[in-house]
Design goal:
3 helices
Length: 79
């Protein structure tokens, strides 16, 4: 694993520290940052695939239609 040094704003550092302490999901801020990056990469990949599918004519739904459908399905899963 590569070791990096980064500079955080006070607000971001506080958020990271609180999140690590309160949730207990992560042993360190580094673990949390790596998870956040993994999630961002996953979102980026999904968005790229959606854009490619939309351009290919795979779907006739607009971006807004897809987003509404996603939010509706997500609300059903969480209720």
């Amino acid at each position: 694993m590569t070791r990096q040094s980064i500079t955080l704003t006070e607000q971001n550092d506080l958020w990271l520290r609180k999140h690590v302490e309160l949730t207990g999901e992560y042993a360190s801020k580094s673990e949390l940052i790596n998870d956040l990056i993994r999630r961002a990469r996953r979102v980026e990949m999904v968005n790229e695939k959606l854009a490619t599918a939309e351009l290919s004519g795979f779907t006739s739904q607009s971006e807004d239609d897809i987003l509404r459908e996603f939010k509706r399905d997500l609300a059903k899963k969480t209720s």
